[in-house]
Task: inverse folding
């Protein structure tokens, strides 16, 4: 067996001929017969909005990383480098669509109007997620790799049973988008999701962010062909899009979601991107990947290219960019404040929500613990 | 849901355990359009045990779903449908085939409600024909209930007669918590009366199946019939056995067992599952803690040996039977 | 959702344009640029040998079905209709290759010189299989759908580590063949096996007998495209062969096994065939499939076509066919005798082999049971 | 294998539990070329806990295999390699991620030898960093050992100190039966002495970690340190606690516990796993049966509450600690 890291380094740099791209790393617009029409309706304001999204989610993410370094979070899972993949796909969803994220989709959460502070509880350790997914149709973070792809497929089967597919009513027809990583593609659950989704023609988009790494393993350890081609084995379309190109990602995801809502079934979208940082704040990438690879990807930065495009076309001026920076600082302050103000849960809360209906043993243990815990009150802090 | 079912004609019908479940599923599906049935071969075939017989014909392919052959996929998609507001009832074809779905059950089904701080509910029932005695090949005769009872977030029940089969499946479906529903497959064809009009006893309560004074025998599922037969035989020898049909394993109705043991002073637990860390272990530990001073003998456990379920020609020796129960009762009196 | 059985009925009749066939149902030889060369070396005697295989395994299978009806077996899983898929593929294996069957591969067992009687223990209930797989490199039957595909892939990875791949030494280079059904293709394990086999380029052939049904479910319930195309999603070749054509199956499997032994990695072979009988002796197909479908498949019988070919070409005469019938009867008698003579295991045997090394609790229970069991001896039969 | 390791330089080294396992793996791989290490990130990264640090560099990618991200695939292919004559040591990254492999472990790994009538052996070790206390997110702090101890065909052990870490991993690898090897992740960095030249005690024997006379406390893995601290604290109050490090959960060394309880008359079990059907249940049932007349109090169990493992800010209250152990000891004396 050959040294994977070497073999990996090269092939991970460019997405190959099938890569859908509408905006080059230099910020040049490209014409694509199939996908350009899907972004034509976007106004300069829309594009500025996407730029704002990209900058703000990156800034909020950086603040969370800082908070972890300062001990305010137990761990943080940075989206650095994947902003366009998440904003582009998230902005393509409609209100009635439902999103199943992994643990890294902070950018998608932003497009669903989820306050970034909401996402911190899990990483601060005050809850296991704890938000109500029905509020923004943004599901809880799922940590067991791949599990959520089956939940997404089942949810989509529910949409079919509700008759909310292919009616032509834009406000009614709904789709599901399931996020997962390149590593997750190896899990049985993800492939079973492909089986169920294709057999039942469920309205679900499988959105794989191929950030080239599964912790220390290059994606050659998960597949020997481009991941978007996995869909061929199950009989539905697969597309590889430049995940650092917010326009292309928006276009490809829009098309896939429309197909789903129209009753044309599942699509696999592989967003070809890169994990610019460590896997998590606990990880040390210097042990397994070469800095040169990261350097090359810096040249493909998703924000820089949109900024160059907006500036060149005169769609945005320095005031605008300054304004966004200011907003970003405000958001960062909001994130920090929200994190620091997040109270430690009262011990009793851990006994809540294990069951919805009466469960005597939990009540018994809860009562026992209350008096046990109280017995230490006198002795002060250590309990 | 029990209210709605009581709208059904007030009659007492003869039924087997299998048909009792079928009737209960039908009642639940009629009462609540969100109830779905899904699994392998549950459609035209009606399941390998015919428990879902006729349901697809009457409720259609959208509500009675023949799934691809993938248990993790069955439970994982059921979770998704529950998130959309449905109440799926999943059939696992045989006890030994629940394990591919174990991850979805333990890491997702059991924990998602807790993860969500109570904002998400997963009213899913997983039906599992379990236990041996049908002369089957490997993986078709197992008793995995303890694996689920050790998992917070799940509820685990088992029926032992047609009336419970009819009512308990409806109560399980009506529960907003996930419920593992273990069906005593070798007793599927045992007959009994089902009164579809009474108000059933709560799902999570044990039942004194036979009153007695000398020793308590606690069993569930297929072993209830065995224990009742043992009690009958013992009665002829002048020994009075109180038989408790646990019905619910998680939560466990300790109060009912405690009351009985405080009366008899002796307890024997019976199940087919491997004794080591089987339900009998938890019952022994908990009851001994509660009844320490009233116990005349340690809790004795009758259960499976510490080997994989053996080839069917060993079943007669492997499975706890009347004699094994009585042997334990005798040993209890020897203390 | 459309009624699957209807949609199914039609598409399941013909394997489509990609079906590899060398012998038509009428017994005409077809030329195939890629596969004909792989059967050219087969002599008339070889073909008579295959005919003999087909007839004998069908006869042994019929005898087992009869034994079940008479209560001598708890259940039987008939291979009726799949003889060519099993003989053709089994005959393509070499001694050093290793076979992982499901529970229906009685024909493959035959090609590995496994006495059919050996297979009956499991179905009679005297053991769980109980044979030594290393004797014939024919693994134990696996009942949990799909599990064995991972074992096969791991075994193949072991072969790689032993340096027994791609050496060019025909007696050394080895491959693994994993059998599974159309229903199994939906299992996560099978797809994970495809991932591992492709990533590690393991010398394994995935041999799927698509007999159109998974108990009552038509294979449209498992996939919406031809199963051999599943391999495309994982980056290795997939071939659909007429599984009722022993020559084509032999040729396709030979090519796949050669590729594996030469270090060219995995192949998926879909043998397009039909389950002529019930799923098992416990099943009632009248509940879910139409008799007309079975009738149409009778016209594709694997034995009839080879017989027609041999007779037409003068490669076999009536004496030969009579001789085979006689042998078949002898084999049936052997199977029946072997089954009836299979002793019930002594109760104590159930305690053996749960562990290889000392395990006190098992010894304790074993000793307890011995004396407990003995205590009934007096009372005669019931224990 | 222990013989071979004893060829190693006769020295006493300082080591952590994590490094003890690394040393043991290295010794096993040097002694036996068929020993393989496989799992997620076990190569260049050396595993998320660095337990396989340096092994791929020294033994190559064919013997230290970074696998695709699929636990069922890891165990399933390990079984295949074992059938080919290899001795795979599989790393499961965290306790909560063993469930996708549960089917392969329970239906194949545990049963294939039995299925084969003893003709097949599967010398596979599955390493599982387990337990809480590291401030992690969901699924990274669980204690699933009972799910495996209830499964005939498997062996289950857990180490609590560097010396056991070094020796037990080698003994597990040397075993021809499959072994589940539970590593106390939050104790990985605790230091101790390892004598690489002594003949270790048998893998399946419990150890009296501290002698005492008034009450027996039985624990394993991370709770041994906790129990020893409790014993120390109790000693100051004049209570003499005997602490038993179980080391082996399946088979369970009941004799050692029995001997202790016959001396002390009281038993408290301690583990992080949910109390309901946790190891403490089996210990309580079995020991009570054996020591019925010598017990002054029922076996009391300290363990996890009946809830999913909570958010890490709850850990301090959720996890059994010195005070919870002493509280149980006090309650035991109250009988
Ligand atoms: C079933 C399971 N196994 C292992 C892990 C530990 N783990 C967390 S993230 C990760 C890598 C995931 O890689 P990928 O799918 O590419 O997503 P990424 O983190 O790169 O976004 C692993 C192995 C897990 N969470 N779940
Ligand atoms: C994991 C698992 N689930 C369910 C079953 C029950 N079962 C036995 S055979 C079978 C159908 C298998 O169909 P297929 O894979 O096409 O193989 P065939 O029997 O048609 O040869 C099922 C569902 C099983 N053995 N294992
Ligand atoms: Mg990744
Ligand atoms: Mg089939």
Result:
């Amino acid at each position: 067996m050959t040294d994977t890291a070497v073999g990996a380094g090269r092939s991970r740099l460019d997405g190959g001929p099938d890569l859908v791209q509408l905006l080059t790393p230099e910020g040049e617009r490209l014409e694509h017969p199939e996908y350009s029409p899907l972004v034509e309706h976007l106004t300069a304001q829309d594009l500025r909005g996407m730029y704002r999204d990209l900058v703000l989610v990156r800034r909020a993410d950086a603040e969370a990383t800082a908070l972890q370094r300062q001990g305010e979070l137990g761990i943080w899972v940075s989206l650095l480098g994947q902003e366009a993949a998440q904003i582009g796909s998230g902005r393509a969803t409609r209100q009635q669509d439902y999103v199943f994220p992994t643990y890294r989709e902070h950018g998608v959460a932003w497009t669903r109007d989820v306050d970034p502070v909401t996402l911190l509880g899990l990483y601060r350790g005050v809850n296991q997620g704890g938000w109500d997914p029905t509020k923004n149709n943004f599901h809880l973070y799922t940590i067991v790799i791949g599990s959520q792809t089956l939940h997404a497929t089942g949810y989509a089967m529910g949409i079919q049973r509700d008759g909310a597919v292919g009616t032509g009513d834009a406000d009614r027809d709904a789709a599901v988008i399931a996020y997962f990583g390149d590593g997750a593609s190896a899990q049985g659950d993800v492939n079973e999701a492909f089986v169920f989704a294709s057999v039942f023609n469920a309205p679900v988009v499988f959105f794989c962010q191929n950030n080239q790494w599964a912790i220390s393993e290059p994606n050659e350890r998960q597949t020997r062909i481009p991941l978007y081609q996995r869909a061929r084995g199950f009989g539905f379309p697969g597309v590889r899009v430049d995940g650092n190109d917010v326009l292309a990602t928006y276009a490809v995801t829009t098309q896939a979601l429309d197909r789903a809502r129209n009753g044309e079934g599942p699509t696999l979208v592989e967003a070809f991107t890169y994990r610019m940082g460590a896997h998590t704040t606990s990880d040390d990438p210097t042990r397994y990947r070469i800095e040169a690879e990261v350097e090359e990807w810096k040249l493909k930065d998703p924000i820089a290219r949109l900024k160059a495009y907006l500036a060149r076309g005169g769609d945005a001026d320095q005031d605008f960019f300054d304004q966004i920076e200011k907003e970003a600082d405000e958001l960062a302050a909001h994130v920090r404040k929200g994190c620091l103000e997040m109270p430690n849960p009262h011990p009793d809360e851990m006994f809540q929500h294990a069951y919805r209906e009466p469960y005597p043993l939990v009540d018994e243990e809860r009562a026992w613990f209350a008096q046990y815990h109280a017995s230490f009150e006198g002795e002060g802090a250590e309990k | 849901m029990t209210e709605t079912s009581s709208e059904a004609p007030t009659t007492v019908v003869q039924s087997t355990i299998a048909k009792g479940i079928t009737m209960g599923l039908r009642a639940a599906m009629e009462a609540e359009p969100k109830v779905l049935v899904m699994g392998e071969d549950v459609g035209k075939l009606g399941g390998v045990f015919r428990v879902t017989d006729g349901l697809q014909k009457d409720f259609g392919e959208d509500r009675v779903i023949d799934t691809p052959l993938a248990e993790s996929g069955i439970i994982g998609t059921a979770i998704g449908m529950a998130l959309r507001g449905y109440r799926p009832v999943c059939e696992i074809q045989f006890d030994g085939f629940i394990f591919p779905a174990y991850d979805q059950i333990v890491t997702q089904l059991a924990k998602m409600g807790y993860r969500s701080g109570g904002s998400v509910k997963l009213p899913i029932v997983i039906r599992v024909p379990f236990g041996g005695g049908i002369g089957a090949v490997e993986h078709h005769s197992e008793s995995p209930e303890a694996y689920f009872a050790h998992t917070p977030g799940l509820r685990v029940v088992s029926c032992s007669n047609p009336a419970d089969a009819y009512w308990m499946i409806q109560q399980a479906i009506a529960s907003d918590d996930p419920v593992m529903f273990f069906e005593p497959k070798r007793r599927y064809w045992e007959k009994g009366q089902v009164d579809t009009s009474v108000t059933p006893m709560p799902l999570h309560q044990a039942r004194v199946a036979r009153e007695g004074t000398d020793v308590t025998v606690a069993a569930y599922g297929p072993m209830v019939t065995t224990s009742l037969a043992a009690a009958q035989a013992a009665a002829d020898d002048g020994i009075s056995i109180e038989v408790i049909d646990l019905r619910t394993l998680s939560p466990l109705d300790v109060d009912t067992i405690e009351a009985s043991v405080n009366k008899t002073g002796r307890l024997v637990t019976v199940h087919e599952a491997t004794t080591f860390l089987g339900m009998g272990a938890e019952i022994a530990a908990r009851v001994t803690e509660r009844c320490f001073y009233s116990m005349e003998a340690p809790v004795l456990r009758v259960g499976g040996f510490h080997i994989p379920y053996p080839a069917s020609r060993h079943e007669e020796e492997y499975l706890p039977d009347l004699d094994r129960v009585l042997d334990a009762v005798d040993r209890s009196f020897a203390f």
User: Anything to note?
Assistant: Strands of chain C lie at 98-100, 176-181, 204-210, 213-214, 217-218, 238-242, 267-272. The pocket of magnesium ion (ligand 4) is lined by residues C 181-183, 211, 213-214 (CB under 6 Å). Chain C touches chain D through 45 residues (CB under 8 Å). Chain C has a mean pLDDT of 95.
